[in-house]
Amino acid sequence: MPFNESDTRAKLIDPTLYQRGWTEQQIKREAAAPPIDLVGGAARRRSRGRIDYLLRVEVEKDTQPVALALIEAKAEHLPPDHGLEQAKAYADAKRLNVPFVYATNGHLFVEFDRFTKLTSAPQPLSAFPTPADLRARYEARMGFSLTDKAARPLLTPYTGGEATRRYYQDAAIRAVFERIAQCRTRNEPPRALLSLATGAGKTFIAVHLLKRIADAGEPIRALFVCDRDELRTQAAGAFQNIFGSNAAVVTAGKPQKNARILIATYQTLDVADEEGTASFLAQHYPENFFTHIIIDECHRSAWGKWSQVLTRNPQAVQVGLTATPRQLKPKESTPEAQADAQLTADNIKHFGEPVYEYSIGQGIEDGYLAACEIRQSHVSLDGLGLKFDDVRKLNPIDAITGQPVSEDQLQQIYQKTDFEDRLLLPDRIEAMCRDLFEELIAGGDPEQKTIIFCVRDIHAERVATVLSNLYVEWCRAFGKEPADHFAFKCTAAGGSDYLAELRGNTRSHFIATTVDLLTTGVDVPMVRNVVFFRYVRSPISFYQMVGRGTRLDVPTGKLMFCVHDYTNATRLFGEEFVTPPTRPRKIADPPSDEPYDPFGDDDPERASIIQVAGFDVQVTAAGRMILTQVDGKAMPVPVEIYKQQLAERLLKEAPTLDAFRTLWVETIERQRLLATLPDGGRSALVVRVLDSLDDCDLYDVLAELGYGLAPRTREERAGAFAYKHAHWLAAMPTATAKTVQALIGQFARAGIEELENQQIFNTPSVKRAGGIRALASFGKPLDVLRETKERLFTV
Question: Which domain holds residue 81?
């Protein structure tokens, strides 16, 4: 009988690799995709998905091994190249970042060389390259030797070991060190650009880049630049955990020139905008003062100003960090989109193409970022537009003074009508807030951490007021004491002091209405909803806004977040979803297909804000979507299509319900099955949440999708067990039957994983019933347990 995959590794591949010189120290089982499940109402990770073999060379004893290759092993009876495409996907510059890729069935292997893009013919495994072979090929292609001084950071171990880093963080750090070594070997300025999704840990990467460089013996006088005081505080904590007092925060009165690591904002350095003179930078830090510079969110401020940090230090190692995808191809030719394109071009011109990329879609698939549901809504007024007479007849007033607005004043304002900006519409605000509030209630509770992006300060203020009033009404209807500060404005003009409450208080400060204060970097893992009440034209800004919801928060059980899109902002996820809103016409407008741009006036000298009430505004659902990987890009997919894709994949692995049930009761087979489903197996969990099936085992979620089985809750399935299998229970000794029923009770509480918990027989109810000894009186305990699981899922 041919070896399965596990036996193929143990009996064929491992011995041959050892004979070819690959020791245990040089072979790592890299964690690739650790999915998360909800078990008994709590979140926990399943066994981590792993690459079969990550091959690393160790230049000297106790140095950091350098990853060069991976091997995807398949069962003995499969062709040797069966796993090659899977391995190539893991190996590229968006995953593990290794140049040599192998697939094998234990007898033959094939190689894909990422340097040459060539795939070899099958060869005997006995001819597999030795560590020296791969190292020589790697050094020849990279243009430097691992013994060169320029490569020392690559060989410097992580402080505290490798346990805390994630696979993609290690790949990103290696990619930067490789680029720096190449640049120094060629006598070029050392530059590198990293593109990683918000929540992926860019600060962790920055800290360990500088730490390993310092530990390699290089002199360090580094500058870390970010965009906000809040980000500076967060970064300072991370750097000081590693560097202690050698890391210091730069403020207006303290340039901190004696510290090895300086953490500053663009604003402090006086390079934040076009008005910046770089006076603080020039006064305190002469040219080439810094040896290393890391620019966080390097797509943010105007290149012409903040780039002075880089151009004044041309000899420094310079690393740019960004959360924005490298390729943004918006179909809308707006000033914001053009500015984004220019910033991207400037970054690439200076730093070069990103040496490593890790997208939001990949993070979701890997289980490092929260899954994303998208709920699109259509606001009737936005589609119909406003005519001048419609506005005039409703007696508009000045939103600040409350005084009537003359027809001449209205005509001036109307020429540049901006909803909620120049033209404040209370009915539109009320309708959108009420719809959102009902969505939150439908999700279980309005007391969910939420960020709403508004147009300007007065809009944020009004939205917070309307939502707070709706919340008080809801509390009164249910006899509940309202929490303090349910909704609050959080803008540069006020409310930013509540950020700590938004982040850490689970009993107040639930909804923050903002303009752009929360668009970048502020870490609020508990945020479950990101809401667009404003139109967004900049893809960069959009990705930053969505990024506020991507962080997991396992302590509160947050594995998903929802984007509530009232302005078609999610079209910016990809070209397939570019459907600009209809443009409301000015009274003299000729017919036009030009997309409406409701917030196009960026003139800081604003005229009066006009308030108009009396419109009938309707908000209707326009669809639900899930963010998932489509051809390597994060794209919204309608929920029904997402379910269809899940069902198709499930049926491919288990064509019948009986086949599915057989796989489900075997722990290893179930985990393998789930890993083959979209998004690394998390799709089943996503559907369970979407369909409000939290009380069901994932078996019932999938059985309904794939085989039309009516889902039963865990309690219903446990309750049916007693009458379905009464004869089987009656044939057992009393203590055995009671123990089986106690085990079924554990399933009702937490699902099939609970039955496989090693401590199941130590739970009080199972021990009182008789425990493992009672099962032993009827047969082998594991056999009885397995049959119990099989019977639990019989129809």
Answer: 5-142
